[in-house]
Amino acid sequence: MKKLILLSLITLSSGLIAYSQKEARSIPSANVKDLEGNTVNTKKFSNEGKPMIINFWATWCTPCKRELNNIADIYDDWVEETGVKLIAISIDDSRNAGKVAPYVNGKGWEYECYIDPNQDFQRAIGFQNPPYTAVVDANGQIVWTHSGYKEGDEEKLLEVVKKVAAGEKIEH
Q1: pTM for the complete prediction?
Q2: Which CATH number does 24-165 carry?
């Protein structure tokens, strides 16, 4: 039993070390749909050398909606302070994709919003469950990621965005 626990701890520690040392990578290429149904390749996402936040969400995900609604209240300040652009990617499948635009429009989000109905972008980024957030630097590299949401996480996200906007290296 002790050997099993020790082996588990070593495996977990190795995984955490590997995760924390993960190098930045560029936004993967995948096709998503804008709210009008037009196809857009994710390689075209840019913010003229300023940071971007790519946030994956779904209409059925309460924490996702809470996070994006909380950010919406302070988003204009973030843009003014850091120049950041938030891109919200719904992973609702084709059965639920019709709910995305009415929800977004009803909330008045100022974000660029897209739908990933086949979860191609989700698979390319490599995560399982929303909410999932990635911060992209001026060079188009994903430099920070976060899974899940609890009240106040947007403060940590803003700290990261400020560092990225200032050109600082991000420690995850």
Answers
A1: 0.84
A2: 3.40.30.10
